UniProtKB/TrEMBL annotation:
<feature type="transmembrane region" description="Helical">
    <location>
        <begin position="7"/>
        <end position="26"/>
    </location>
</feature>
<protein>
    <submittedName>
        <fullName>Uncharacterized protein</fullName>
    </submittedName>
</protein>
<feature type="transmembrane region" description="Helical">
    <location>
        <begin position="226"/>
        <end position="245"/>
    </location>
</feature>
<feature type="transmembrane region" description="Helical">
    <location>
        <begin position="157"/>
        <end position="179"/>
    </location>
</feature>
<keyword id="KW-1133">Transmembrane helix</keyword>
<keyword id="KW-0812">Transmembrane</keyword>
<feature type="compositionally biased region" description="Polar residues">
    <location>
        <begin position="273"/>
        <end position="290"/>
    </location>
</feature>
<feature type="region of interest" description="Disordered">
    <location>
        <begin position="271"/>
        <end position="290"/>
    </location>
</feature>
<feature type="transmembrane region" description="Helical">
    <location>
        <begin position="199"/>
        <end position="220"/>
    </location>
</feature>
<feature type="transmembrane region" description="Helical">
    <location>
        <begin position="124"/>
        <end position="145"/>
    </location>
</feature>
<feature type="transmembrane region" description="Helical">
    <location>
        <begin position="32"/>
        <end position="54"/>
    </location>
</feature>
<keyword id="KW-0472">Membrane</keyword>
Length: 290
């Protein structure tokens, strides 16, 4: 992926986030946006800065799920791995970083392009998983009837929703980084306490907070049926984005694994067997989290 594509991706993610955060205040006439050159330049700059934050935050929030997907893939290729190194101890049952470097250093141009294309799609899907709930709640609040808008203080409309999103984002990141740590393929599950699972994860906390926010916003909605429908549609799109993210992540891991397995299996076997830290295939932990 070239730097231009990455910049566009980050700016778009940031602009979508800005639109979601301030749409309620805009719909209530509290904010106005001009189309001057200076305004567009500021918007793009803010979009880029916010896009970088969102990209890193979404990566952290989905870290637990990524660890689970990696463990399940490691279990899936157990027979292939055993054919390379036997059924004993290995350094890492799925050395993803090393496999990625092998494609960048030794892979063909087509392999590198395929890897980068999958990484781009994974990032887009990952951002959709996190941002779609924000857009859903923003749309519901922005659709409040005029009489409700008059009852709400300007500060509540302009500040509380972005503030809620900031607190929710920080909370989800803290949960992912310091509480529900992601499982790893390089360390036996028995020696590293990890409470991460599909439900006990930062993603669940993120979804739960926005489901509560959507429920609160529906209370003030003039057409609650439409608001409920919008909430259902938003979370359905989120679920589809999560499914797409999971499928593309598995495809990405399969590309990394199969490239090294077919192009240089001896080098892959030597790397997995080397080092002082060795771990068994975490099949037990995978059965527990499935």
């Amino acid at each position: 992926m070239n730097i231009g594509e990455l910049l566009v991706e980050l700016v778009l993610a940031g602009l979508i986030t800005l639109a979601a955060l301030f749409f309620p205040a805009y719909s209530m006439g509290l904010l106005g946006f001009g189309l001057s050159t200076d305004a567009l330049a500021v918007a793009i700059a803010l979009g880029f800065a916010l896009g970088v934050i969102i990209d890193r935050s979404t990566d952290t929030i989905l870290e637990g799920w990524l660890g689970l997907v990696r463990l399940k893939f490691a279990e899936k290729v157990t027979a292939e791995r055993n054919a390379l190194v036997g059924s004993g101890l290995v350094q890492d049952v799925f050395p993803e970083d090393w496999l990625r470097i092998q494609i960048l250093v030794n892979g063909s141009e087509a392999a590198v392009r395929a890897m980068e294309a999958l990484r781009t799609r994974i990032r887009v899907a990952r951002n959709m998983v996190v941002l779609t709930p924000v857009l859903t709640v923003s749309a519901i609040i922005g659709g409040w009837p005029p009489d409700t808008r008059k009852q709400m203080a300007n500060a509540e409309a302009a500040v509380l929703f972005p503030l809620f999103e900031l607190v929710a984002l920080i909370s989800a990141v803290v949960i992912a980084r310091w509480w529900l740590k992601a499982p790893r393929t390089s360390t036996p599950a028995a020696t590293v306490p990890s409470r991460a699972s599909w439900l006990a994860s930062a993603v669940t906390a993120w979804f739960g907070l926005h489901l509560l926010a959507a429920a609160a916003a529906i209370v003030f909605s003039d057409d609650q049926t439409t608001a409920v429908g919008a909430t259902a549609a938003g979370f359905l799109l989120t679920a589809l984005a999560a499914l797409a993210w999971e499928r593309m992540t598995v495809s990405f891991m399969a590309l990394l694994w199969n490239h090294s397995r077919f192009t240089d299996p001896k080098k892959l076997a030597a790397h997995m067997s080397s080092g002082s830290r060795s771990t068994q295939v975490p099949s037990t932990s995978i059965q527990e989290i499935s």
